[in-house]
Design brief:
The complex is a heterodimer. By secondary structure, chain A is an alpha/beta fold. Chain A is built from 9 helices and 17 strands. Chain A has a domain of 85 residues: Beta Barrel (Elongation Factor Tu (Ef-tu), domain 3), CATH 2.40.30.10. In chain A, helix 5 runs parallel beside helix 6. Classes of the chains: A alpha/beta, B alpha/beta. The complex binds flavin-adenine dinucleotide (2 copies), iron/sulfur cluster (2 copies) and FE2/S2 (inorganic) cluster (FES).
Chain lengths: 268, 463
């Protein structure tokens, strides 16, 4: 059992939990994730570690309630199982002029990496995308570390109206970008990668395939990278966006749609 | 006295009934059957059966105790060499081990040693015979990484010697392949595996789930900050292999580990109520010929709605590495065996779900390095079978996590940990054994390695 120290609703259906997990807090680096099984009988799901506090021995996760397991997690008083930190931590160096692009709840995994890149000396531009003003998260955490902060919302309720790629393109045109990191819905990561490819700007993305164990045992998280099969939990979750087969990922993510829907109905 | 060649057969659930449930297939010997079988043993002066057992159980001695109806003595006799008889009696490939070398095998009726061992093991479980009385702790800490049969055995042996033993397990449940791989109908989880683990808990072994060593804590953390005097690494070889043929990434093409993990560990076999589901459709193809392939095929067959399960194996029946009993049971239940056949490609629907497997026929050529005749493709023999799901059970590789995070740990070119015959790795006081050293093998070999390493660790630490 892992104690939930605090929980906050930070946007509609988006929660931030602070959880007591001393060893994970000590070992965790930017880019790592955990596998969480909220209650006995629920699924094991991957969630990024957004921050950690080695003094308080806690980690923070931010997640959107989308199905049965995240519903359980939102309601949980304590957590049955957490294992981590998993995955390779992000490779951090001073890339020069960096643009980090986050979409929706993807801004959560983006934050710790943006902080690390900034600390390594990069010049940081953050582009945050959300459905509307209400759904925008972590703006206050990213603003102080960003040399430039751009916001794009679908309905124009905050920042510019439209997609994050619209905000990114002018920067690429100005040749003001050395490195891009994009985390968000698969369609967004694909669009960003396609855009930067034509400019020859190196782009990393963090993939979110289905997972079970997160230790390299089951193979459900396999992705196609440059034609090769890779396990996102041990080889990733970050990969070169120009080498990722995003359509394959989208397809594999849809594998249990029918069952997930049914489960959600039973659950609610 | 004339030889009695009437080998008893294990009572089992009827095949057409059991193919619809996940309850244990083999029902166990009755006391009458057990004594009848024990009575057939010749109690040889030179018991060749022992030579076939990797841990050299004194087989005639325990069989004598069964005959004398002294089951406590039988338990003691077996546990000198094997602490998990209820498990080995069920899953050992006896036909290539103890029963193969039994003198009566020449007459075609070896003693049913596995069935007798299970009989004794089940008695121990029923009577909750703790392995030994609880031994006081000597204050020296030893860590075991991985809770499969190898880790469990090593932990039990070291605890008996007085060490404070902590087992670290990456998953949320203990037992390794015994729990996430081998299905309920072959090895009951609560009734058998859990009881053995509870016995270890009673003996004072501490278990920590959700610890992925190499990530949560490094091996060096265990040795330094955590104060363990020695570590035994028994992480198994659970990294699934694929054939690297087109279409393997289509939806509902599973690795056997994914399929069995969903089924067993995450309990997808419970159907709609299961949080982690599995889709099988009507027609399933399983690729491979080992125990894993048999287990996957028989699990699939038991799911509601499944009409046909084909098992596709590239060599002939003779070369199949699965236990003979599993093959027999699989056939009785109606698995469709396609020998000398291999898939070359999977075809998908526009939505990306697998719909067919393209296969070729093979014939056996010259023997390869393993001594088995190498399968060669017969030209123009291609054909397609319609499938809704595919399970790839062609083997596993070494998991890279510990090797990647432990500088100085020697591994071979396949990623398995290198040890000397005592189980010692290239790092002082770090031992390893089971599948992570040998490559995918058997429960009894994994246990043997655990026991062996425990002895060596004790010798070194007691100095
Ligand atoms: C390495 C990694 C890090 C992640 N970090 C975060 C994070 O920090 N915050 C967060 O909110 N989510 C994160 N995710 C996604 C998260 O794991 C899923 O949202 C979660 O598994 C949904 O579980 P559920 O049972 O509630 O929903 P389900 O019933 O499983 O699914 C409901 C809906 O969500 C979709 N879905 C299911 N799994 C995923 C997935 N892995 N990615 C995207 N969509 C999915 C389904 O297709 C379905 O439409 C991460 C995923 C990975 C692989
Ligand atoms: C489906 C299937 C059927 C089989 N049937 C038979 C059979 O009938 N008879 C037979 O003799 N053999 C059978 N085998 C083989 C047998 O199960 C294995 O040889 C045996 O389990 C190996 O034992 P082990 O202890 O080395 O590893 P495992 O049983 O694989 O256990 C390793 C454990 O370590 C954990 N782990 C891995 N990495 C870490 C880490 N970094 N930190 C912490 N924990 C970690 C894993 O989660 C796992 O629980 C079968 C195997 C499979 C997959
Ligand atoms: S442990 Fe296995 S090989 Fe040894 S006697 Fe028992 S069943 Fe036979
Ligand atoms: S070899 Fe066979 S008959 Fe002889 S002691 Fe062993 S089990 Fe009995
Ligand atoms: S989640 Fe199982 S191998 Fe990656």
């Amino acid at each position: 059992m892992y104690e939930i120290i605090s929980k906050r609703l930070i946007a509609p259906a988006v929660w931030r939990h602070t959880i007591k997990a001393p060893e994970i807090a000590r070992k965790r680096q930017a880019g790592n994730f955990v596998i969480v099984r909220p209650i006995t009988g629920s699924e094991r799901i991957p969630l990024t570690i957004v921050s950690s506090d080695t003094q308080a021995e806690t980690i923070d996760i931010i997640f959107q309630v989308v199905g049965a397991t995240t519903m359980d997690l939102a309601e949980a008083k304590s957590i049955q199982d957490i294992v981590g930190p998993l995955g390779h931590p992000t490779h951090i160096e001073n890339y020069g002029r960096v643009v980090v692009v986050g979409g929706g709840v993807g801004i959560a995994p983006l934050l710790p990496i943006a902080q690390a890149l900034k600390q390594a000396g990069s010049r940081l531009t953050a582009i945050l995308g959300a459905r509307s003003k209400d759904f925008l998260i972590l703006e206050d955490d990213l603003a102080p570390i960003s040399d430039e902060l751009l916001i794009a919302t679908d309905d124009g309720s905050q920042g510019q109206k439209g997609l994050v790629t619209n905000a990114l393109k002018p920067l690429l045109d100005k040749k003001a970008v050395d490195f891009v990191l994009a985390i968000g819905p698969v369609v967004m990561m694909k669009a960003v990668s396609e855009l930067t490819r034509s400019y020859g700007v190196k782009t990393m993305v963090s993939l979110n395939p289905l997972m079970i164990d997160g230790t390299g045992m089951c193979g459900v998280c396999r992705c196609k990278i440059d034609g090769q099969t890779k396990f996102a939990c041990v080889d990733g979750p970050e990969f070169d966006g120009h080498q990722v087969d995003f359509d394959n990922l989208t397809r594999r993510l849809s594998m249990y749609h029918a069952e997930e829907k049914k489960r959600k109905e039973i659950r609610s | 006295m004339p030889l009695n060649l009437n080998r008893v057969s294990m009572p089992e659930q009827e095949s057409q009934e059991r193919r619809h449930n996940f309850k244990e297939v083999n029902l166990g010997l009755t006391p009458e059957l057990a004594r009848a079988e024990a009575g057939r043993c010749l109690f040889c002066k030179k018991p060749t059966c022992i030579d076939g057992c990797p841990v050299r159980i004194n087989i005639p001695a325990f069989i004598q105790a069964v005959l004398d109806n002294d089951l406590n003595e039988a338990v003691r006799r077996i546990r000198v060499d094997n602490s998990l008889p209820g498990i080995c009696g069920r899953v050992c490939p006896q036909e290539t081990q103890c029963e193969q070398t039994c003198v009566l095998n020449k007459k075609g009726a070896p003693i049913a040693i596995g069935a007798l061992e299970r009989y004794v093991g089940d008695y121990a479980i029923r009577e909750c015979l703790a392995t030994e009385c609880v031994v006081a702790e000597n204050g020296i800490k030893v860590a075991v990484v991985g809770s499969g049969p190898s880790g469990l055995t090593c932990a039990g042996e070291l605890r008996k010697q007085g060490y404070s033993v902590t087992v670290f397990e990456a998953l949320h449940e203990l037992g390794g392949v015994l729990v996430y791989g081998i299905p309920e109908f072959r090895l009951p989880k609560e009734a058998v595996v859990q009881v053995e683990i509870d016995t270890l808990k009673t003996m004072g072994v501490e278990f920590k789930t959700n610890y992925l060593i190499g990530k949560t804590l490094l091996l060096s953390d265990l040795m330094e900050a955590e104060g363990f005097a020695a570590v035994y690494v028994a992480t198994g070889s659970g990294y699934p292999q694929f054939m690297q043929i087109p279409g393997e990434d289509l939806n509902y093409v599973y690795s056997a580990n994914e399929f069995l993990t969903r089924m067993n560990l995450m309990q997808a076999y419970k159907g709609d109520a299961a949080a982690t589901p599995i889709f099988v459709g009507k027609s399933v193809a399983v690729i491979g010929g080992g125990n894993t392939a048999m287990d996957a095929a028989r699990c699939a067959l038991r799911m509601p709605g499944v009409e046909k399960v084909s098992l596709i194996y590239r060599r002939s029946e003779k070369e199949m590495p699965a236990r003979t009993e599993e093959v027999k049971h699989a056939k009785e239940e109606g698995i469709n065996f396609q020998f000398l056949t291999a898939p070359t490609e999977y075809l998908g629907t526009p939505e990306g779900a697998v719909r067919a497997a393209r296969c070729v026929r093979m014939e056996l050529g010259e023997p390869d390095a393993s001594g088995r005749r190498r399968p060669v493709v017969i030209p123009d023999s291609e054909y397609e079978i319609q499938v809704d799901a595919v399970v790839v059970a062609i083997g596993t590789q070494a998991n890279p996590i510990i090797a990647q995070t432990t500088p100085g740990l020697e591994i071979n070119k396949w990623g398995y940990i290198v040890t000397d015959e005592d189980g010692l790795t290239s790092i002082k006081n770090i031992y390893a054994g089971g599948d992570i050293v040998s490559g995918a093998a058997t429960v009894i070999l994994a246990m043997g390695a655990g026991r062996n390493a425990a002895q060596k660790i004790h010798e070194v630490l007691a100095r």
